[in-house]
Amino acid sequence: QVQLVESGGGLVQSGGSLRLSCAASRFAFDYYAIGWFRQAPGKEREGVSCISSSEGTPYYADSVKGRFTISRDNAKTTVYLQMDNLEPEDTAVYYCATDEFCSGTYHQWGQGTRVTVSS
User: Fold this and answer.
1) Mind listing the pLDDT tens digit for each residue in 43-58?
2) Of 15, 34, 60, 115, whose CB count within 10 A is highest?
């Protein structure tokens, strides 16, 4: 069974930065695209970013493009989401998940990490 554990969330002021980490158990990690999605109260789940398996190609939602950077370290089986210039609208619980071909089809995800951006 895949296990994904998110960390790095917290409270930050508008314009600040956070780096989220997604640590994965060894499950042929290299072969999986990993995505981040977020869930805010009263809002639909939103795919934020994804990184492909083989070439590490990044994808971003328009809402975070230019502010968020996704990366992966296959040796550490970890995916990172660097979030800069945070806005109150980024407040949500962030989850990492296996993301089939970065299509937004999530199969397994962790418990989430909460990000709160104050204005």
Assistant:
1) 999 999 999 997 899 9
2) 34
